[in-house]
Amino acid sequence: MASNHPSSPHNDVKLPLPNPCDAIPASQLEGQKEEFNYSKRSQWLRAAVLGANDGLVSTASLMMGVGAVKQDMKAMILTGFAGLVAGACSMAIGEFVSVYSQLDIELAQIKRDKERSTNGQMDRGEEENGDNGEEGGLPNPLQAASASALSFSVGAMVPLLAASFIRSYRARLGAVIAAVTIALMAFGWLGAVLGKAPVVRSSLRVLIGGWLAMAITYGLTKLIGANAL
């Protein structure tokens, strides 16, 4: 005899089954890794561009300041060379100390994570984050210091080379300004491309900043040299 009782609603419940299509494909994971690596490379390149811009502007401003009170080519070149050495050493030491401090912090964090993992206090997500941090690599203070010193030196060489072979005072100042202008536009363009910023606006901002630095240094040195020395 067939039963007339209505079927229980619990009999119609279907448990969700995992969909194999929901798994993240290997190509997407590789794309994420490539995007992460590209981001890290972009940060290094952007830091290198900023270091080169610092070397360019500071050395050119020093040379313009000396050129405001002395027409001697030797004095101008020696001042620029001293600015190159001092600036590169300062950038390298500052970057070394900064990155070494970051390294100490990350090593301490890794040590704490390993202790927590040993004690069974870390969940799966934290362990994966810790593994990703170790795979990403720790910062290298010597590499960062060398990159900063090198980028600063490259920028500082531009006004030095522009003034090294011109004996005429006015032509030498003009050559420095022209070379620095071209380099500032190039650095501004490269920084805008790496930072995904408007190219024209970024280039003009870098150019005007460099011109202001040279003009202020030249004007103040000329004023003090004429009235106080």
H/E series, N to C? HHHHHH
| Sheet having the most strands | none
Strand content: under 5%
Shape: elongated
The SS-based structural class is mainly alpha
Task: Explain the overall architecture.
- InterPro entries: Ccc1_fam.
- GO terms for molecular function: iron ion sequestering activity; iron ion transmembrane transporter activity; manganese ion transmembrane transporter activity.
- Keywords: Ion transport, Iron, Iron transport, Membrane, Transmembrane, Transmembrane helix, Transport, Vacuole.
- Residues 114-138 are annotated as: Disordered.
- The mean pLDDT is 80.
- It is built from six helices and no strands.
- It starts with 25 loop residues before the first helix and ends with a helix.
- The chain has one domain.
- By secondary structure, the protein is mainly alpha-helical.
Summarize the structure.
The chain has 229 residues and is mainly alpha-helical.
List keywords for this structure.
single chain; mainly alpha; Vacuolar iron transporter; iron; transmembrane; transmembrane helix; iron ion sequestering activity
Outline the fold blueprint.
Layout: H1 26-69, H2 73-118, H3 124-136, H4 141-163, H5 169-195, H6 199-227
